[in-house]
Design a protein that fits this description.
The chain has a 22-stranded antiparallel beta barrel. It has a 5-stranded mixed β-sheet with strand order 2-7-8-5-6. A hairpin with an 8-residue loop joins strand 16 and strand 17 (about 305-325). By secondary structure, the protein is mainly beta. It is built from 6 helices and 36 strands. Helix content is about 5%, strand content about 55%. The protein is globular. Pfam families: Plug, TonB_dep_Rec_b-barrel. This is TonB-dependent receptor. It is a multi-pass membrane protein. Keywords: Cell outer membrane, Membrane, Receptor, Signal, TonB box, Transmembrane, Transmembrane beta strand, Transport.
């Protein structure tokens, strides 16, 4: 740790010689973009990638969970507003969703997940969501899909210094604020951001005498990234972020007032990257250090807690070679990481992982491109099978395209799966999946449509069940299921239209149908809705804009037997909002906005016995200068 901090300190002291003057605003000419995850689009020709831009983010400032729930095909399980929140694609589990920070998988070694209420909306420069398998590029857990959080650094020919302040206030004494700074010259670029969120979160339960009395939360995040260009061929980058969260855990019906527990967590991530380009070659070396820690208090009033933490050292070397004569690229990635994990009930364990992968991208002609991917992992705890993928995209006509891919992906058991006292299962083996996808689409200036059929066949899938071990009846334990099959349809539509040359309209739609079956007993896998969908409609005129959001979530079984007495009912929820630009010039933009969540005051739950809020409000101000 000391060595890492020393490297960070030396790097910052050496290159940060910034006279922060507002000499110039954004200049689109002669810019050189240093993008944290350059390879995502290049390696996703046969996959669907959704970009969540600023106009989407500004309408979903409450939480990262809300942003994903209303704008992507992902199913979010949230244990009450502000509580534990996990994401899953295409009927897979939350540990089959890989979350990438500047190209590094940040899922916890302890539970294999990322909590989405511990991520801050607006601090990241680029948010991408990719459906489909990705273990070749992103490692364990990238089975259902991946979520990418990227910091983007830009060099400018003229000096640029910009600021952004966003602040929201809302029902239940909720406050969200953030500040972002960007600085760039021809040789140096830097981003800085800080956010703070707090809420009493004591919303009333509809048709009940109770409130969410133990749901308060508070958190803050600090992020910094910078890059220095020694020459056009040599660029050094550094990224760091720190998060601290303090939240109470909401109670469950029928007696939510009995809840008295609290949870605190810290996440710190650091990444140093050096990139060298020459002729057809590009060499990138990265070194990272990631730290996670949590404390769980059974009684929030006592300083008695359970804890867990992990330290992770990450390194990789990527070599890209371009065959310009045939318009192809070969990429080699060599990766090593060492992870130390521990809790107050699990002694420290060290897992070491080494992997080698190769990706070949080839654009044969303008109408056809394909890629071949292969990866072999060596894990100190498990024998991980070979991963591979093949995909292509064909554009036989001007605006129509076809895409298809197949891949083999994997997830290794987490420390909680293996060693949790009284519940772990040390006999678990890695789960693997063989999956395929075929999609048809249309893309023009105004209309984008993508519809795909997918099939995921998983072997030795890891799930937690209360009946998994006959020697421990009623105790939730993880087991390997022999085989599961997920198949379905995923649809995405986006349409833009100008009305009377004055009003701009935008309509977007995401819909997923999935049939997820445990082949051993022929029942639906728990916690998988068959139908989920969301839609956004936006209208803008001059300085004013309005939007409407709709979310539909089908019923969810919570038991392997699919008993109808233990389901979370289907629901639909609507939000409305608007924004007005008080100032709109090249130099600055000041807007105010409002949003009404659950405008129809619908009674619903995402997790059984944990009601969500009725109608609630927030106001926001967004100032860029």
């Amino acid at each position: 740790m000391k060595q890492v901090l020393f490297i960070i300190f030396c790097f910052c002291v050496t290159i940060v010689n910034v006279n922060a003057q507002k000499d110039s605003l954004y200049n689109p000419l002669d810019e050189v973009v240093v993008q944290a995850n350059k390879r995502l689009l290049m390696n996703s020709k046969s996959l669907k990638v959704v970009n969540l831009n600023d106009s989407i983010i500004v309408n979903n400032l409450e939480s990262f969970t809300t942003l994903l729930r209303f704008n992507t095909p992902i199913y979010l399980r949230e244990h009450g507003v502000g509580g534990t929140s996990s994401a899953s694609f295409r009927g897979t589990s939350s540990s089959n969703t890989a979350v990438m920070w500047n190209g590094i998988n940040i899922n916890s070694i302890n539970n294999g997940q990322t909590g989405f209420n511990s991520l801050t909306v607006g601090l990241y420069d680029e948010l991408n969501v990719r459906s489909g398998g990705g273990s070749i590029e992103f490692g364990s857990g990238a089975i259902g899909g991946t979520i990418h959080l990227n910091d983007v650094l830009e060099f400018k020919e003229d000096k640029v210094f910009t600021n952004q302040i966003v602040s929201t206030v809302g029902s239940f004494t909720s406050i969200n604020s953030l500040y972002k700074l960007k600085y760039a010259t021809e040789k140096y670029a830097a981003n800085f951001g800080v956010s703070y969120s707090k809420s009493d979160n004591d919303y009333p339960f509809l048709d009940s005498e109770f409130r969410n009395s133990n749901g308060a939360f508070e958190n803050y995040t600090i992020s910094f990234s910078n890059a220095y260009k020694f020459t056009d061929a040599l660029v050094l980058q550094f990224f760091t972020t720190y998060y601290f969260g303090d939240r109470l855990f909401s109670g469950e019906l029928p007696n939510p007032t009995s809840a008295n527990d609290k949870y605190q967590d810290i996440n710190q991530r650091n990444l140093l990257s050096l990139e060298y380009k020459k002729s057809n070659w590009r060499l990138t070396g990265r070194l990272g250090y990631l730290f996670q820690k949590y404390k769980y208090f059974g009684d929030k009033n006592l300083d008695v807690f359970n804890f867990g933490s992990s330290d992770r050292i990450y390194s990789d070397v990527t070599v890209d070679f371009s065959f310009t004569s045939i318009n192809a690229t070969l990429t080699s990635n060599t990766r090593f990481e060492s992870i130390f994990g521990r809790t107050d009930q699990i002694q420290e364990r060290n897992r070491r992982e080494f992997s080698q992968s190769f990706i070949f991208n080839h654009k044969v002609k303008r109408a056809f491109s394909y890629d071949i991917k292969v990866r072999k992992d060596y894990n100190s705890d498990f024998d991980v099978p070979l991963s591979y993928a093949f995909g292509f995209k064909l554009t036989p006509f001007n605006k129509f395209f076809f895409r298809a891919n197949t891949s083999r992906n994997y997830r290794v058991p987490t420390y909680n799966d293996l060693f949790w006292p009284g519940q772990g299962n040390e006999n678990l083996i890695p789960e693997t999946s063989l999956q395929g996808e075929f999609g048809v689409g249309y893309k023009s200036k105004r209309l984008f449509v993508d519809v795909a059929y997918f099939n995921i066949n998983a072997k030795d899938k890891i799930i937690w069940t209360p009946n998994g071990d006959p020697t421990r009846p009623g105790v939730w334990v993880p087991i390997n299921l022999d085989e599961t099959t997920n198949q379905g349809i995923e649809l995405a539509v986006n349409y833009n239209q100008s009305i009377f040359d004055k009003v701009d309209a935008n309509v977007s739609l995401n819909y997923t149908y999935v049939d997820a079956i445990n082949e051993a007993i022929g029942t639906s896998i728990p916690f998988v809705p068959k139908h989920i969908g969301n839609s956004n409609i936006g209208l803008s005129y001059d300085r004013f804009s309005m939007f409407y959001q709709l979310l539909f979530n089908d019923k969810v079984y919570t038991t392997e037997s699919n008993h109808e007495d233990y389901v979370v009912d289907r629901f639909s929820v609507s939000n409305i909002g608007g924004n007005y630009d008080l100032i709109k010039t090249e130099e600055q933009n000041l807007s105010i906005g409002f949003k009404v969540n659950n405008v129809l005051n619908t009674k619903y739950s995402v997790v059984q016995n944990r009601p969500m809020p009725g109608i609630n409000y927030n106001l926001n101000i967004n100032y860029k200068f």
